[in-house]
Amino acid sequence: MGLAQPNFAIFRDVAGIRAFQDQKAPGLWYLSPPPPRLAQDQEGSPAYALEAFAYYGRKATGDQGVFWQKVILTLGFERSWPPQAREKLRQSLAREYGEPIKLRTLPVFQAKVRLIYAGETYTRTWSTRWRPERIILPLEEHLGALLWEAARRGQVLLSLVLEEQARGVRLEKGISKPATLTWTWTLDIKLDQKRYPEKFRLHDLGAKLERAYTRIDILCLDFAEGTLPGLYATLVEIGFPVKGRLLVKQVRFDENSPFHQQVAFPLAHETGRPYRFRVIRIFEDGRQETGPWRERRGERPLDVTLYRNLETQEER
User: How far apart are CA 117 and CA 103, in angstroms?
Assistant: First the structure.
């Protein structure tokens, strides 16, 4: 199947849906993106979650005084046109053009989300792996802390601006030229801690640990952040010193896995020695990048997300 070539100059509006005709196939029409609506989960409550991951260093782990926090907002949306409306559109086009009609979703090549709260703005842009039904926003430190503290006190009203762009063509004086169309929606989202306390989760990553080296919390936001185009999977190998040898456990992160996973230390590990870890990234074209083994002590969360300095392209 070739690339979509919607002609933005030829469109029809039926039952609230705008559809664009393919430049070469008159019977092929592309549906404009449906407006986002906050979805409901299986219990009928709004599909959002605000999670705070916090770690306080302890004397037992040799990192007393260290504080680490990450706040992540997850939003679920309903993004579909009603089946009845799609059928009305199809029938209308079939009557007009007298041939079978195929309806397809208009591909979005870029999406941008702006989260606005208390004068602070968080912006995130996707050019790949855009999933309009589920958005994961790892918030910047200041905004995340501000939002978490406000949510603990009760209701919080957020503004979310969603922008989607699609590519197509437009005829000018009989010549087909590339064109883009942009759709923008603004949503008000209320986070209600009193009504839905289960939506607000604090993960105190060191609260229940009784001794050093019992478990490690691993965070990987490579897929939520979209750090590397073409990334297929991120593998994290953890090596534990056991009887003079290295016992290796592996954790896999991909587009469908949780961004937070745990690894338990084996009971026989040598607590006086550091553990080792390395990160392996596998790409969709088959390439594999294997990082060096590194040593680490303590139970502070291991964040293996690839953060890059966009100016120098250096990892940090």
Answer: 38
